[in-house]
Amino acid sequence: MKKEDVVTNSKLKRYLLSMKNHIYSILAITVALSSCKPELEGELGDPSDKVAGLNGNWEVSSFEQQDPNNPIREERDLTEFYVVPGETPTRLNFNRDDKTYTVQAGPGKNYFGTGGTWAFDNDKFPTYLFLYNSTDTIETLLGSVVTERDNLLEIELENSCTDAEGVKTISAIYRFTFNRVNE
Amino acid sequence: MKRTSLSITFFLAALLGLSQAAYVQPSPTGKNDTITLYINVALTTDGSNNNALNAILNDHPDDSVYLWSWQPAEPTVGNGQWENSNQALKMNKIGDKLYSIRFKPTSFYGVDATSFFTKGISCLAKLKNGKEYEDSYPGEAKTEDLKINIIPRLCDELYCIFPEIAKTDDYLSITYDNNQETNASMQNLGDDDCYLFIRAEQSVFVGVNYTTPELTTSTPALKMRPVGPDKPGFFRITFIPEDIFEGLLSETFDFKTLKFYALKPGFVYTSAPPFQSFTFLDCD
What is the pTM of this model? Predict the structure, then answer.
């Protein structure tokens, strides 16, 4: 080993020792500061209640139809069939207590029946909303989670059929957007 | 940007096709296209379905190869017997172990475009006698079962339907491109001049007109509206087929097909009108 190497090694050791001291100082200050932080008081509460979020009146504000068999899955905005000036759009009312829903049909094709009961696939982390009526079960995909603070509900329905050979084909996907109505 | 993405998608789809044992061109495919179906036997795998055609063609490269197909339906001419394929289904040899056959799917299979697009093509390639060289190879003189999914081409025809596959309770949009109209009497329509004659059919012989051709152009529900200033000459109408015919069809009527064509006020066809046809999904 050369003399220059010994000198360089010695400088490096001093530098590392100095850095070590700095790190200890920073840690000590951090601990001291965090110990001064006031403790949290009260409870954070339950995660947003999705069942309560759906509770209430919802009114159709837009409608799109998507063609799943088209190479670019083309979408068309057909809101004009559901939102007609001078007419009350279709309204859904969801009751959180008895899990019932009612439909006040407005213009446009009614895909929701007249009413019945409803359920999420998972009340804490819902992906699907099921509507059960006397003749049908309507499965809808939730566009986003709805809490009590949210005023927008997006749901998707598939229109499909199964042929004699058991092959299911989806002809169209309907995308409804509802606004919360506080009345 | 959308156009570029679309071009890339179609290019990749075409490229993907060429790397498969069976594919069609053109792809994406129009509902009225005549297609070429290719089978590259070199890319098939002997032994997966008691098949040995790849190995057989190594030793007998000049043997003729035939198409055997069962979906969307058996070809209208018939596949023939397994030991004696129909001569009409002989494929052209266009390269080493690469074979092709050209046909118009809807007439070749005797199905509508909806069935063709939803079911695709299931087929295999074989020698005329599927049991040829039976004792010399560990399998029959055929490829494994091959499946070709069909990608529908974006419509650019005189009439376009949205969605491309529909039930009678879907919102159905029919777009008419008057720029492609070949009948001189129907060309250069004004914004308020376009109407659609529609007819619900259960079969060729059983159908109900929404109204007569003469009254069509005074029926507001049948008026086609201009698509917009960015698409001059395009007209569109949107309705739910089973709803628009509500009250006109008996309860036993099985609404299978919608027939239609455009009209303008004061004009009716004196000869056979240019009926267009759209077949709904066959739901059980």
Answer: 0.67
